[in-house]
Amino acid sequence: MTPLVLACVVGAAILHAGWNAVLRGGSDRLWSMTLMMIAVAAVSAVAVALLPWPDAASWPYVIASALIHTAYNLSLVRTYRSGDLGQTYPISRGSSPVLVALGAAVFAHETPGAVAVLGIVLVSGGILSLAFQGRMRADFVPAALTTGSLIGAYTVVDGIGVRLSGNSLSYAASMFLLWSLTMPPLYWAMRGTPPAYTGAQTAMALAGGLVSLLAYGIVIWAMQSDAMGAVSALRETSVVYAALIGRLLLGEELSPRRIASCLAVALGAACLAW
Asked: pTM value?
């Protein structure tokens, strides 16, 4: 991985932790997610109009990724009802490098080495440690792991799809547009009339959508030429930033044990990226 890609993916990790904090802090998380997707739709529609179409071979992956991302949106909202950011985020994100590494090995022939196996052990150990910290609802761990499984699925799909697209920006814009257009009708079907958000709350959610677009757009670009497992793992060092954001902005506890668990997940992710 080149220094440029390394720096960009680390930046994406910080951005990703930031928009998850925006979502976790919202009073109606499903509406916050919908507003984020409205912002993503506006930007990606312009991009699709200006960019060439991705190659036809990538379109099944564009559609599959958009559908998986929609399921991920709903699962993520449910996950944040069950636990705080410092617990749910590391489990959801920390479990995905393992799944991506396995998926990449099966579908893209990216076989992990000994250091990667060590990374899997560290990530799994950190997840198990986080799962038994603090008070949580009974559905906390299954919800977070479901989200992690969906993250692993769409990452592998996008890693393969972008390599068939001929243009990473075209692929990302097309996928983002299809994905983002699913949320407004889903919200209407599930909740009906949206809540009365203030201008500041609306602006924060819209900005979170733009940040999420940039964060994952960087990851798609990076996976065009680098190993999926390495890129995904490096991105998941965001668990450390999420724990800090949860403590500083959301008032969540940051105990020594939680710090150690997050560092274990981050170290495991770094091993997977070796």
From this structure: 0.80
